[in-house]
Amino acid sequence: MSGLDDKSRRDLFRGSLDVMVLAVLADGKQYGYSIQKRVREASGQTIKAGSLYPLLHRLEADGLVKATWESDTGRDRKWYELTAAGQRRLKTAAADWQAAFARMQALVLPALRQVTNHPATS
Amino acid sequence: MSGLDDKSRRDLFRGSLDVMVLAVLADGKQYGYSIQKRVREASGQTIKAGSLYPLLHRLEADGLVKATWESDTGRDRKWYELTAAGQRRLKTAAADWQAAFARMQALVLPALRQVTNHPATS
DNA sequence: CTCATATATATCGCTTGAAGATATATAAAT
DNA sequence: ATTTATATATCTTCAAGCGATATATATGAG
């Protein structure tokens, strides 16, 4: 019944995290917690806080996002937005991400047809 | 110029390894070294021997593959083939793998369109 | 009014595991 | 004869994810 094991699922997710976070920021400012929620809703996987904030700090250090403390309600939040470099990176990274998947898919899909058409006798 | 960073690429690959190895075995017996080559050719990524053999042993321990020592040429090789359980696993794991990607893609693609249509001014 | 839960950000350190290094051995090529 | 490719396997180091933890405000229930 179990399909993909948890470890594989997490690795797959982890390898897509940068791209997904950049993608979430593509339509405007977001703060950490909201990014976490949006990624969880979209992917079904949770970025743990212990991974999210270091990741965000890394993107900031790399100049891909810019952060500012602001409060829209009474509450202070750290808002992140894409820099021009971040937008460029999103384009190239997303394209690479797609391409990497496409190559692997070209290996997996025919094999899947194979076992589907020739089921095990026992 | 750099798209997806190496770490993400490796994580992505690692999370797809089980599925790819099962996929390679879908059209018949293969031995470790040939599996390694086929995955490399298909994906452009190399499974290191230090990862491949432990992985193969794990699949064997899980009853997904069956291994036998045989020599077709003068040389002894350990041949792996899918068990019925392995074929079933390939089906569910490949489906899950696909689905996981589709979900993430649904987040990434619209964002990509977003930045492509509204390029940075600077 | 209090307690639990959700929101919100951040860091530290344990544990896990990928893969580099290494070992061993045969076939092929130069 | 020496190097390179083939072939399998293990050990151990090193990095890093994320569980645990800390801190603080907002909200909803009882």
Report on the structure:
The structure is a homodimer of 122-residue chains. Chain A is mostly helical and 122 residues long. In chain A, 64% of the residues lie in helices and 11% in strands. Chain A has four helices and three strands, in the order H-E-H-H-E-E-H. A three-stranded antiparallel beta sheet of chain A has the order 1-3-2. In chain A, a hairpin with a 6-residue loop joins strand 2 (65-70) and strand 3 (77-82). In chain A, helix 1 runs antiparallel to helix 4. In chain A, 37% of the residues are buried.
Task: Give a topology summary.
The structure is a homodimer of 122-residue chains.
Chain A: H1 6-24, E1 30-31, H2 32-43, H3 49-61, E2 65-70, E3 77-82, H4 84-117
Helix pairs in contact in A: 1-2, 1-4
Chain A binds a DNA duplex (30 and 30 nucleotides) through helix 1, helix 2 and helix 3.
Measured distance between first and last alpha carbons of chain A: 17 Å
What's the gyration radius of chain A in Å?
18 Å
What helical percentage do the residues of chain A reach? 55-70%
Instruction: Count up the helices of chain A.
Output: 4
Order of strands in the sheet with most strands of chain A: 1-3-2
Shape of chain A: elongated
- Return residue spans of chain A where pLDDT drops below 50 for at least 5 consecutive residues: none
Biggest chain pair interface: A-B, 63 and 63 residues
Given helix and strand content, the structural type of chain A is: mainly alpha
Number of strands of chain A: 3
The average pLDDT score of chain A comes to 91
Largest sheet of chain A: 3 strands, antiparallel
